[in-house]
Amino acid sequence: MSKNxxxxxxxxxxVEQDRLRKxxxxxxHTVYKDINLSYVKKLIEVGSGVGAQTEILLRxxxxxxxxxxxxxxxxxxxxxxxxxxxxxxxxxxQLLEMDATDIEFESQTFDGAFLCWILEHVPDPGKVMxxxxxxxxPGSIVYVTEVLNSSFFLEPYSPHVWKYWMAFNDYQYDMKGxxxxxxxxxxxxxxxxxxxxxxxxxxxxxxNRRPAKRKEFIEYWSELLLSAxxxxxxxxxxDEETVNKARAELKTVRNDPNAVFYxxxxxxxxKAF
Length: 273
Prior knowledge:
alpha/beta, Rossmann fold, 8-stranded mixed β-sheet
């Protein structure tokens, strides 16, 4: 682990890296529905990880050049391997190991910023957004997409899933992250001097109206939840019995003809001045 890396709930192995790419692809439509970076030429992506969102950004916005920063050399190495295979990405990105609370660029370097599923993992999101604002030119746009884990609902009732989910969130808090940070984005952006702040709630609500999509989402969500199980067991937040019973409950819900899945996340946009 490099000096810049920090503990991460899901780990840094190749399985997790593949999951992150799958997650980006799976959530793309909802995440990017209201994002417009067509007029941005120099974008900074904070917490770019394995480059999964970078690939989507480069594909969706062919005129943008992206500077990716992340604290994990391991993730950046994986991003390099992946992006090198994308013909549309050639000469349009750079990958830098960097602390987002101390961005090593001059003020007013970029005309856009993008952060997705990153502030939930950092101890001082206000400092990150302060640095992002500093390196943006006046009038530049920033998009921030974040979790709101209190919104999760699953039917039929699955007590071991809930026990596991509470441990999942407790561990993230204990690691100085925030699994509920999405609801706080408006406050954070106001405190750091952004203007034209807009906050939207994005929701996945799957029931009998779309049974195939519901099953697909529950399968995806099961993979996301259980990706942290080894770490949670290691740190004694849950035991193997709870994990195994949660896994069984998720399988039962996935195949229930009357299952309900609900989750909301938050996306904010603002301008730097």
